[in-house]
């Protein structure tokens, strides 16, 4: 028995599959459990890239100081005015989840705005398809989407080796932890 259990009901991310539908952008106000602050020397250019390329919307702003962007619930970014930004992207990245049918269009939208700033899409050993984007602020952002689970794949074997079983599999049921 593992320490993992199915808790998909607390996430806005839909279960992976060919018909997965992304949730609507979330306009509610809540206490943010996590968010990222990104300094920018050009708020307008940053907002343009994040909205047209990465699919965020402007939740609110403090003119000339801060713009709060969001996609789904719990996908919050604060663009903060700064005198300058790093010249090189950091090794660290920040990831946002989506659904598989969004990956190619997001990569294309970002390439249209910044052709040399997009790497991927590429498949990962943990069963996702990812696109890495370097934003105008030199932030390294990864857009990730789970692929449908196929128990015959190496990715499924990788997950099983970690004790992660697909939703509906009760062999490692940990209901007492829920």
Describe the structure.
The chain has 3 helices and 8 strands; from the N terminus they run βαββββαβββα. By secondary structure, the protein is α/β, with parallel strands linked by helices. The longest helix is centred in the middle third of the chain and has 11 residues, at 103-113. The relative contact order is 0.21.
Brief account:
The chain is α/β, with parallel strands linked by helices. The protein has three helices and eight strands; from the N terminus they run βαββββαβββα.
What's the layout of helices and strands?
Blueprint: E1 36-40, H1 43-52, E2 57-62, E3 66-70, E4 76-81, E5 94-98, H2 103-113, E6 118-123, E7 128-134, E8 140-146, H3 154-161
Got a strand count? 8
User: Ends: how far apart?
Assistant: 14 Å
What would the principal axes of the Cα set say about the shape? globular
Which parts are unreliable, with pLDDT below 50 for 5 consecutive residues or more? 172-178
Q: Report the mean per-residue pLDDT as an integer.
A: 87
Defining key terms:
178 residues, alpha/beta, four-stranded mixed beta sheet, 3 helices, 26% strand, globular, disordered C terminus
């Amino acid at each position: 028995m593992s320490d993992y259990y199915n808790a998909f009901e607390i996430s806005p991310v839909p279960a992976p599959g060919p018909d997965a539908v992304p949730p609507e952008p979330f306009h509610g106000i809540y206490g943010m459990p996590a968010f990222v602050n990104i300094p920018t020397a050009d708020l307008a250019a940053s907002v343009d890239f994040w909205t047209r390329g990465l699919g965020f919307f402007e939740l609110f702003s403090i003119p000339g100081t801060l713009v709060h962007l969001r996609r789904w619930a719990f996908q919050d970014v604060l663009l903060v005015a700064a005198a300058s930004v790093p010249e090189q992207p950091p090794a660290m990245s920040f990831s946002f989840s989506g659904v598989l049918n969004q990956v190619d269009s997001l990569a294309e939208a970002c390439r249209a705005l910044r052709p040399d700033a997009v790497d991927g899409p590429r498949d990962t050993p943990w069963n996702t398809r990812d696109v890495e984007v370097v934003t105008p602020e030199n932030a390294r952002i990864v857009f990730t989407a789970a692929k449908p689970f196929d128990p015959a794949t190496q990715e499924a074997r990788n997950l099983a080796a970690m004790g992660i079983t697909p939703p509906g599999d009760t062999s490692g049921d940990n209901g007492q932890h829920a």
